[in-house]
Write the structure tokens for this entry.
Amino acid sequence: MSFRPYGLICPISHACDILEPRWTIPILTEMWDGATRFSSIRRGVGNISTALLSKRLKEMEANGLVRRIEDPASGQVDYIRTQRAIELEPVLAALGRWAQCNIEAREALAATDLSTLMWHMRNYINTAQLPDRQVVIQFRFSDPDLEYSVYWALIRPGAPVEICSAVPGFDIDLYIETSCLSICSILLSRTSISREIDEGRLFMSGDTLLIETMDRWFYQRTEERRDEIRQLGALASSPG
């Protein structure tokens, strides 16, 4: 990091020198959500090249935000936040609340990267509210120019939720047709599932129980999840 004298006068400017490089805050946010492996961080952040992520992690390590831990036996590497980074949590949460109040929601949400959103979808499905059996949900998005417009959520008892961009080879229990904007708006509590259905922006077919209980098994209320969704609009506008 280059030395800038004004940082000695203004602590905020000095903090910006550390946090301002593009992708730094999204990386911290993803690690806040539990990601420690390079591949998990990259997948969660979305649209960032491996070279740039490697560079940012090295910079963050040099700035005391991240510790790189390598297992000598397996060679596996984990990236762990330091106490300095953990102390930024209330700052990031406040930034998210400010964005919620001051940035035009429709504009921000419309820019959300769908592949990143679907990767995070693993955390947005409350499996405790689903039947105690395998459940397969297909999401089909109407947005133009998508690399993938169809995704599948595979939910099995006792296993993490899996998100697939290829047909998982099982019978589908629920079909959901919607847009990225509609799903994000539901997650942020900007709208409701029933309103999206009534206004023709969300269509469901298949298992009646799953349709009628979506407002219970699809997260949309907790502040923790809203803060996570707020980051997604920023990710789409960052270069890979």
User: Anything to note?
Assistant: The radius of gyration is 19 Å.
